[in-house]
Write a structure and sequence with these properties.
The protein is built from 27 helices and 19 strands. With 694 residues, it is α/β, with parallel strands linked by helices. The structure holds nicotinamide-adenine-dinucleotide (NAD).
């Protein structure tokens, strides 16, 4: 039963009990309406309390019902709220811990509200590209005022209950037991005989409403350029302010029905569900026991090791940080210290917190200090010989059951695992740079990686606030393997007629955070060079344009050398188009006998994005990624793919696979067309009118 009905001192207590957060699924909604009717018909009952069992009042819609008929089956939330608001006997909502989305809208339909301190109050629908669809945009402004309502609804950010204590949202803050307080309030208001207030009837404070609405619009002009929902949230609030509750409510409904169909909302919902889905691994049941991880070891205090160590200490986990020599160790620690000091200066940490984090790091040159670690992450030079030395040492000193992780970007994890006598304990943890900032963590599953090791690392990823996606073993894993094809196309297009600034501009206009050339200049062009040199030997039939090698031969490695695809003035990160580079590119085309042509922005975007899709499809065929949504998560959280497009595979679904395949076949006819043989999965889905994501 999702709802319980009991009587206490003449008050009907309707308890929502649908763990984990009392989602308003069909049976919960049904139970509430039933409870209200039962109270109505019971002469011994004078008032009603609505309360949540367990961890929340209510987190809102039941996400397990999303996209199922139950989500819209009567009684809908609007019907439930009507029943609550229309009850002759006063209804008191008793709120603790969480009142979000539909949960808060339900409470707004009650006549009175009492809250515990520390409850998170929010209407977060905007984060899914929607707006509150059950009166939230109309009742909340009447409860907390236009300014606060705009802030809450447009941002979706939770506010603590005590910060709203002096608004009409709460009649009382409960000091002791919440249910006691609610029953007392219910008894009192029942005795008063009414009338019982309804937020819909409450006069709204109109002071400076126009100004507030305009400044909300100004506030989102840039950030919500690609998102219709924040605009609709403001429109709906404005409608209610200017034309009253009923019109506002009707307009809110209209906006909801519009938004739910927008590609942006579909993409945001896809991202939301994909992140949850990524943490589930088909053959690793959710009840797989996890290993205790309390002490961490990190080997290598360079660019990655330092950032990786910070992730753990930020989550309160002590780290032993090992280097080969004192100089490298000192350098690594100094970088970490500078980071925390800068954070303290910016007010993001107190000086005490910064100090505490530094104290959680124990620097060492001695492997014996790693003997007690539960997880050791290796981040040494990308060289199999060096990795071998390190993993053989770790195998000698690590305690039985310790997890041994490698941060390798390109090396074969199975080979690394084979350097130990415990390959089941070895896993890849592929962080992205800067490791303390980037959300993405590719968890690389070796042939022998144990299920409980995977389950442990996935759980730990949550603790250090990473978006973890499992990848099988292959060169580049999911993300870098796909980006290689994207970069290849970018270089071909230079050779065929485009210039770096045009390509970057086109793909940034599509929504990427950074185009391929600005990105390469940031990462260092020598990294790609090293990869290509390896490719020329390993995969001689995978042709690359030589134009990037030319650039590297000129010593233009990117920002770190002050020159790359662009010019950089000393101390500046601003990319300025370079005449030298543009001349070099044109000359290169000439040398190769290529007649340069105008390449349109549409072609640029299509070739870059579809190159990701084609490689992604192969990654699915090979089982490197378990599902298309995992690939989308990698690109949304690690590669700056525009969130409102939902990731490359989702974007392909939106385009339609038949169109995707047709474009690939068209490019296959052009120069450099050999890269465009559509993956079998693309052809299959095109033929069956299928989708990557279901
Ligand atoms: N830089 C990136 O963007 C990035 C991203 C993801 C993964 N990675 C991977 O992370 C690893 C480290 O890369 P990085 O960029 O931090 O390199 P880096 O050169 O900045 O740091 C490597 C550190 O390891 C230390 N080291 C070398 N041999 C060691 C040993 N035997 N024992 C202990 N310490 C040793 C070095 O002194 C150096 O401080 C590589 O495997 C790389 O492929 C790098």
């Amino acid at each position: 039963m999702a709802v319980h009905y009991t009587i206490r001192d003449g008050v009907a207590v309707i308890t929502l009990d649908n763990p984990p957060v009392n989602g308003l699924g069909h049976s919960t909604r049904f139970g509430i309406v039933e409870g209200i009717e039962r109270a109505r018909d019971d002469a011994g009952v004078g008032a009603v309390v609505l309360i949540g069992a367990g961890k929340a009042f209510s987190g809102g819609a039941d996400i397990t019902e999303f996209n199922t008929p139950k989500a819209t089956q009567e009684p809908t939330l609007a019907t439930v709220i009507k029943a609550v608001e229309g009850s002759d006997k006063p209804v008191v909502a008793a709120i603790h811990a969480i009142a979000m989305g539909g949960g808060l809208e339900l409470a707004l339909g009650a006549h009175y509200r009492v809250a515990s301190r520390g409850a998170q109050i929010a209407l977060p629908e905007v984060k899914l590209g929607l707006l509150p669809g059950a009166g939230g945009t109309q009742r909340l402004p009447r409860a907390v005022g236009v300014r606060t309502a705009l802030n809450m609804i447009v941002s979706g950010t939770p506010v603590l209950s005590e910060r709203l204590a002096d608004t009409a949202l709460f009649d009382e803050m409960a000091e002791g037991d919440l249910l006691d307080a609610a029953v007392r309030l219910a008894t009192r208001v029942a005795a008063s005989g009414g009338p019982h207030p309804k937020l819909r009837d409450r006069e709204m404070d109109q002071t400076n409403a126009d100004g507030l609405i305009q400044s909300a619009r100004d506030g989102i002009a840039v950030s919500a350029k690609h998102f219709p929902a924040p605009h609709k949230c403001i429109d709906a609030i404005e409608k209610g302010v200017k034309e009253g509750f009923e019109r506002g409510l009707a307009f809110e409904r209209e906006c909801f029905l519009f938004l739910v169909q927008t590609p942006e909302s579909r993409a945001l919902r896809h991202a939301f569900f994909s992140e949850r889905a990524a943490s589930k691994i088909a053959d690793v049941p959710s009840n797989t026991p996890v290993r205790t991880i309390a002490r961490i070891g990190v080997v290598g205090a360079g660019t990655m090791g330092g950032g990786i160590a910070m992730n753990f200490v930020n989550a309160g986990l002590p780290v032993v940080l090992l280097e080969t020599n004192q100089d490298a160790l000192d350098r690594g620690l100094a970088t970490i210290r500078r980071h925390y000091e800068a954070q303290a200066k910016k007010g993001k940490l107190t000086p005490e917190q910064a100090g505490e984090r530094m104290r959680l790091i124990q620097p060492t040159l001695d492997y014996a200090d790693l003997a007690q670690a539960d997880l050791i992450v290796e981040a040494v030079f990308e060289d199999l010989g060096v990795k071998e030395q390190v993993f053989r040492r770790l195998d000698e000193i690590a305690r039985p059951g310790a997890i041994l992780a490698s941060n390798t970007s390109t090396l074969d994890l199975n080979k690394i695992a084979a350097f130990t006598r415990r390959p089941g304990d070895v896993v890849g943890m592929h962080f992205f740079s800067p490791a303390n900032v980037m959300k993405l963590l590719e968890v690389v599953r070796g042939e022998q990686t144990a299920k409980d090791v995977l389950a442990t690392v996935m759980q730990l990823a949550k603790k250090i606030r990473k978006t973890a996606v499992v990848s099988g073993v292959c060169d580049g894993f999911i993300g870098n393997r796909m980006i290689e094809q994207y970069l290849r196309q970018a270089l071909f297009m230079l050779e065929e007629g485009a210039l770096p600034a045009q390509i970057d501009r086109a793909i940034e206009a599509f929504g990427f955070a950074m185009g391929p050339f600005r990105m390469s200049d940031l990462a260092g062009n020598d990294i790609g060079w090293a990869i290509r040199k390896r490719r020329y030997v390993e995969q001689p039939d995978m042709r690359y344009s030589g134009v990037a090698d030319k650039l590297c031969e000129m010593g233009r490695f990117g920002q770190k050398t002050g020159a790359g695809w662009y010019d950089y003035e000393a101390g500046s990160r601003e990319a300025k188009p370079s005449q030298t580079v543009d001349d070099m590119i044109v000359a290169y085309s000439g040398e190769r006998g290529v007649e340069r042509r105008q390449i349109g922005d549409d072609e640029i975007v299509e070739r870059l994005v579809l190159s990701l899709v084609n490689e992604g499809a192969k990654i699915l065929e090979e089982g490197i990624a378990a599902k298309a949504s995992d690939i989308d998560m990698v690109y949304l959280s690690g590669y700056g793919f525009p969130l409102w497009r939902g990731g490359p595979m989702f974007h392909a679904d939106t385009l339609g696979l038949a169109n995707v395949e047709r474009a690939m076949r068209k490019y296959a006819q052009q120069p450099n067309g050999e890269a465009w043989q559509p993956a079998a999965r693309v052809a299959e889905l095109a033929a069956s009118n299928g989708r990557f994501n279901h």
